[in-house]
Design a protein that fits this description.
alpha/beta; Rossmann fold; 6-stranded parallel β-sheet; two-stranded parallel sheet
């Protein structure tokens, strides 16, 4: 299988590149090599290539920037995916387009399923939702893979920030009234594999770890895992704050966006591991290993 990855310099794209390079014929583009904000690049770069699957792991993911730069958000998150879907259709290839839990409004109190009606409350969520629609309108056999709170070794994320804060300060805090699911990039790569094959049904799939938590719970577990690995931290507890306390946020954030993964579990016959196990693995394999090297 010949695979192209766009966004290979990012947290998710970097993991996909590393995990799949051992088993597939890969061509990868980072943002400098192929920028979705410059759509005139897409056909000249992609049309000469032969591929079976194109994975789009790129996008404008700065939620607050999307709020202040909506034209850019829709160009990168909606129009560029439409063009990628069109190119893939012409080649008889499958597009795997990554989306987000922010397509939901957060009004649920239990995990969202793929069939639940999305209703975004921010420009970021709206632009990603429109990208989903344009991709699947081009070809219903393309894949839209929704993920949430992505962390991994290729780029820092919340977990790395909270650990660094705990190293430097005696008190740290995180939001306690926003809930979703931390999802490990290596687990995403593994769960995505069956969907690369054209025999897998197209449409929307949720790729997340199991369980749900607040940012505060997520951060507390990360610190607990660090202490279990013998890492030195100044802060032992993560204090609770609210979304309303974070005055730097511009865009509204949905308060509950955990993703149900039953559809993929039924298709593959296996369940994703719990987010706590994934975080513990990350701390042991990457955070502790880097400090002890």
């Amino acid at each position: 299988m010949r695979v192209v990855i766009i966004g290979a310099g990012g947290r998710l794209g970097g993991a996909l590149l590393r995990e799949y390079s051992r088993e597939r014929s890969l061509t990868a583009f980072n943002r400098q090599q192929l920028n979705l904000a410059e759509p005139e690049q897409l056909r000249p770069k992609l049309e000469p290539l032969g591929f079976d699957v194109l994975i789009n792991a790129a996008g404008q993911t700065n939620v607050d920037r999307c709020e202040t730069e909506p034209d850019e958000a829709f160009a990168v998150n909606a129009e560029a995916p439409r063009l990628l879907a069109e190119i893939c259709g012409e080649k008889g290839a499958r597009l795997v387009h990554f989306s987000t839990d922010y397509v939901f409004d957060g009004a649920n109190s239990e995990p969202y399923h793929e069939e639940d009606e999305p209703r975004a409350i921010s420009v970021y969520g709206e632009s990603k939702l429109e990208g989903e629609r344009r991709v699947l309108s081009a070809d219903a056999n393309h894949i839209v893979a929704r993920v949430s709170w992505v962390f991994g070794p290729d780029r820092p994320s919340f977990i790395d920030w909270i650990i660094e804060q705990a190293r430097q300060h005696a008190r740290v805090a995180a939001v306690a009234d926003k809930v979703s699911t931390p999802t490990y990039t290596l687990d995403i790569a593994n769960r995505l594999r069956p969907l690369l094959n054209r025999s897998a049904p197209g449409g929307v799939w949720h790729l997340a770890n199991r369980g749900a938590c607040s940012w505060r719970e997520y951060g507390q577990w990360a610190l607990d895992c660090c202490r279990a690995e013998g890492l030195s931290l100044r802060a032992r507890e993560v204090d609770a704050i609210t979304l309303a306390d974070v005055k730097t946020f511009i865009a509204p954030r949905p308060v509950y966006t955990a993703l149900a993964t039953k559809k993929l579990e039924q298709f593959t016959g296996s369940a994703p591991r719990h987010w706590r196990a994934a975080v513990a693995d990350y701390v042991c394999t990457h955070v502790a290993a880097a400090q002890n090297s």
